[in-house]
Amino acid sequence: MKHTIKTTAMAVATGAGLLLAGVAAQAETLRMASLGQASPTTVFSIAASQIIKKEHGYSTQLSTGSSAVRQAVEAANQQLELFVTAVSINGYLKNGTRMYKDMANAPELFGNLRSIMNYPLGAYHGITWADSGINSMQDIKGKKVFIGPPSSAGRTVITQVIEGVTGFKENADFEPVNLDWASAEQAFQDRQLDVYFVPTPIPSSELQQLSALGKFRVLGIPDDKIESDGVKAASNVPGREFDFLQPGTYSGQVNEEPVRMVSSIVGLGTNKWMSEEVAYNITKSIFENSADLVAAAKWMEIITPENALNQMNAPLHVGALKYYREIGVEVPEDLIPPEAK
Fold first, then answer.
1. Angle at 227 between CA 226 and CA 233, to 5 degrees
2. Is the domain 122-265 a CATH 3.20.20.70 member?
3. What is the Cα–Cα distance from 287 to 53, expressed in whole angstroms?
4. What angle do CA 215, 40, 286 make, to 5 degrees?
5. How far is CA 118 from CA 41, 256, 318, in A?
6. Which helix (H) or strand (E) covers residue 289, if one does?
7. What is the C-alpha separation between 108 and 318, in angstroms, rounded?
8. DSSP secondary structure string, 93-113?
9. Which of 136, 185, 304, 340 is the most buried (most CB within 10 A)?
10. Where are the domains of the chain?
11. pTM score of the predicted model
């Protein structure tokens, strides 16, 4: 009888241990989202996932292809632990404007979001094959053009730039092709699109890969269109600036003059429910393993603690705040979360 009781007790203890282990493992699995498969946000997300797995054993369930507009709402509703933030989207959500204008609780949802770090998404490249006969944005009239997924922030920027440069409007002057980022990339490679707009860093691994498929041209913003209403609307937003693609950056690039484009800043975000310890560990491990980021893509050498708060407009997570203060980074008052005041 004593043996039976002992065995039963051990079984209960073992079962309880397995249950606790299961709960712990579940707590360390973070739901994460990024943009398209070729997006710099996915390159960053994969590299960051590998770092936090190596350093702390945190597993991530990474999904790609959803817009940053959607990710912000999902994170605010506790459906994501890590997501792609965007300075412009933060502003729209906070004020309930643009794509959130019909969402009565948009400001409340914004209040649930927290920032970890910012980094450059890259410039919005308008790419066409060199033999397409399209030499400038004026030539896209009547063409099939990918301008970003429907309701995405990228689509807003791209349509503003196109209208500012050409006066063209989607459906009336050119045919917008509604796809997600990954599907659009493949469609362009298969020559089912005349022009493919995509945000990507300079230099871009995606454009390097295109060089192997053929000659291409990148469509830019002419000097005389910088002050147009559309271009000003796209560029005069927090988190936006101009960037230039120089001739000869890629072997397949045929541009002979620098190409001006609008670029955006994005970031890694979470929500207020993530524990301080986890957010601190994520922030610290990414910055202390920056060599792993650069090994994945050279453009990520710009991701440093000193640049990480650049144009940030959503409060830091208290765990991230702890790390920045620990290493002596000055944090603006408006980035300090309510729970830290």
1. 90
2. no
3. 14
4. 145
5. 11, 32, 16
6. none
7. 19
8. HHHT-GGGTT-TTHHHHHTTE
9. 185
10. 35-57+68-120+266-340, 122-265
11. 0.78
Instruction: Please tell me if the domain spanning 35-57+68-120+266-340 has the same topology as the one spanning 122-265.
Output: yes
Cα separations in angstroms, 318 against 116, 238, 271, 281: 9, 23, 10, 12
* Tens of each residue's pLDDT in the chain, 341 residues: 333 333 333 333 333 343 333 333 334 799 999 988 878 999 999 999 999 999 999 999 999 988 899 999 999 999 999 999 999 899 999 999 989 999 999 999 999 999 999 998 889 999 999 999 999 999 999 999 999 998 888 899 999 999 999 999 999 999 999 998 889 999 999 999 999 999 998 888 889 999 999 999 999 999 999 999 999 999 988 788 899 999 999 999 999 999 999 999 999 999 999 999 999 999 999 999 999 999 999 899 999 999 999 999 999 999 999 999 999 999 999 999 999 98
Q: State how far Cα 26 lies from the chain centre.
A: 25
Calpha distance 281→54 (Å, rounded):
12
Largest CA distance in the chain: 93
In the CATH hierarchy, which fold is given to the domain comprising 35-57+68-120+266-340?
A: D-Maltodextrin-Binding Protein; domain 2 (3.40.190)
Sequence-separated (6 or more) residues with CB below 8 Å from residue 159: 147, 169, 170
Rounded to an integer, what is the distance from CA 330 to the centroid of its chain? 24
Sequence-ordered list of residues with C-beta below 8 angstroms from that of 267, at least 6 positions apart, any chain = 84, 85, 86, 87, 115, 116, 117, 118, 119, 312
Q: How far is CA 79 from CA 75, 100, 188, 270, in A?
A: 5, 18, 32, 10
Token representation of residue 239: 């988190």
Question: Exposure string (b/e) for 321-339, b if CB count within 10 Å is 16 or more?
Answer: bbbbeeeeeebeeebebee
Question: What pairing do the DSSP bridges indicate for beta strands 29-33 and 59-63?
Answer: parallel
